Amino acid sequence: MTTSGDPDGSTLLTSADVKDLLSAAVEHAGGSLVSWRLDHVDASPRHSTTATYSAAVDWPTGRRTELLGASARVGGRTGSDERATIFGDGDREVAVWLYPDDPDLPGLRRAGEISVDPRAYFEESDPAMERLSRDVARTVVSAILENF
Prior knowledge:
This protein has 148 residues and is an alpha+beta fold. Helices cover 26% and strands 32% of the residues.
């Protein structure tokens, strides 16, 4: 993972060389990387590179497709990177995470939870409010499923 000739991490994060990093991250989380493919790259040349990967991972509970992310930056990590797992080789540090724990989107996990009781968003608990919360929940879930 050295920075020589690749200060923003773009070569590492967009080549087959990233496999060892992804494998280490998945193993750290308790899984085993089966396969992966580059999904998206957000590059800021000479500053930083963030990439996401679609990966097949074997977990103790079975195989699942996961979305992994990795960010490399010139000059080291940022404050948001601290919310990810940091991997380094003494020369470069790379922040790696599994969706939905994107360090730049700390509310993503909570926003993606559709199992929250909709009444938790309301202070009152009268029958009209219960009906409203069911209607809101139905509308939100329908919108999510239509766009999924």
